[in-house]
Amino acid sequence: MTMNYRMYSRSHFVKGMELMVLLICYRLYGKATEDSVAYALVMGSTWFLVGSWLFDQFFFNPSGFEWQKIVDD
């Protein structure tokens, strides 16, 4: 499990967290027309990308939720 995290961390977790922080900052300080369709499509697809980078490891690795393996690691 720790090897899985180390291999996945740099390529997905770090980039997912950075993109999430950028999206939150853009939402707080950005000036965009929020009622446009283009804004909704870009933000929706980008939030989907963030969610998939952060949580797909858990969806596709069923042993990631086994408590004993987490305790052992």
Briefly, what is this?
The chain has helices spanning 2-29, 37-60, 67-72.
**Unreliable runs:** none
Share of residues in strands: under 5%
Shape: elongated
Number of helices: 3
Percent in helix = over 70%
List keywords for this structure.
single chain, 73 residues, mainly alpha, 3 helices, 79% helix, 0% strand
Strand-helix topology:
Blueprint lengths: L1 H28 L7 H24 L6 H6 L1
Helix pairs in contact: 1-2
Describe this entry's structure for a reader.
The chain has 73 residues and is mainly alpha-helical. The protein has helices at 2-29, 37-60, 67-72. Helix 1 (2-29) runs antiparallel to helix 2. The radius of gyration is 16 Å and the shape is elongated.
